Amino acid sequence: xxxxxxxxxxxxxxxxxxxxxxxxxxxxxxxxxxxxxxxxxxxxxxxxxxxxxxxxxxxxxxxxxxxxxxxxxxxxxxxxxxxxxxxxxxxxxxxxxxxxxxxxxxxxxxxxxxxxxxxxxxxxxxxxxxxxxxxxxxxxxxxxxxxxxxxxxxxxxxxxxxxxxxxxxxxxxxxxxxxxxxxxxxxxxxxxxxxxxxxxxxxxxxxxxxxxxxxxxxxxxxxxxxxxxxxxxxxxxxxxxxxxxxxxxxxxxxxxxxxxxxxxxxxxxxxxxxxxxxxxxxxxxxxxxxxxxxxxxxxxxxxxxxxxxxxxxxxxxxxxxxxxxx
Length: 326
Ligand SMILES: *Cc1c(COP(=O)(O)O)cnc(C)c1O
Prior knowledge:
Layout: E1 14-16, H1 18-24, E2 27-32, H2 44-57, E3 62-67, H3 72-84, E4 87-92, H4 107-114, E5 118-121, H5 128-141, E6 146-148, H6 156-177, E7 183-188, H7 192-203, E8 209-214, H8 221-237, E9 247-250, H9 263-276, H10 285-297, E10 306-311, H11 315-320
Parallel strand pairs: 2-10, 3-4, 3-6, 4-5, 7-8, 7-10, 8-9
Antiparallel strand pairs: 1-2
Helix pairs in contact: 2-6, 3-4, 6-7, 6-8, 7-8, 9-10
């Protein structure tokens, strides 16, 4: 039994951003989790390495995921399923209102179509869990075996992928700076990415603080989720030890809601593209970058401090929101 399938064939790179650093003050690095892997890459692949291994170990052949037409999680799962020869079903409902006339055909929707994804559309008022179970029952009746992917890939197994990522960052950062970063910045949706990072930096006993900028929840539900998942990871890796975590979860940069672009986010997209040739998306990474920029402006993060920004992917969304930019 393997506890991981191989969806990533190397470490993602850690790159220095000279022009952004020059403009803002602190030394800023970017962890390129947007690069590599099938189906267009992104942060979900690290999570799926253990989740899909679990599915295979349980003899499942059909992976079922909840999503929407612009879901990175669904698009990456379809890509990984293609690679591994598994079936996948995307249970889709509208979670982001149409931003332009091609919104539901462009971006992730287009890539899923190219991969011949099996998409089942449900009504906005339908419950994901109930519908997914119904579909799983049908799959199982036909003699196949269904496996339900947890929301956002954020259970213990999925989050462990970002425990791995924290250790990659520690190793890579030590090579270039001889120390640990002061801050690691990430967008936070369902919480698994952040929880894995928090647990990783805490277990390694670094003084690194992880700052997550929420892109989905506007209340402290998400902080509870991250806390719970972080403790689960720590209990899994280092049971019965006293590990001190250091993180902050900011919910002030969500804007109107999930998938709604913000003014500062759009500015951050233009800035990173112009200065560094790096593309951020309106749904996730731009909101985290807008948060980081504000923290530097407000001197919450100082000029002599060192930062790693985790680029979690989402490039197809740049296209889906084509008419939002300056
Ligand atoms: C899913 C996703 C996130 C959020 O990660 P969580 O682990 O759900 O918090 C961030 N960025 C991108 C591009 C994503 O697709």
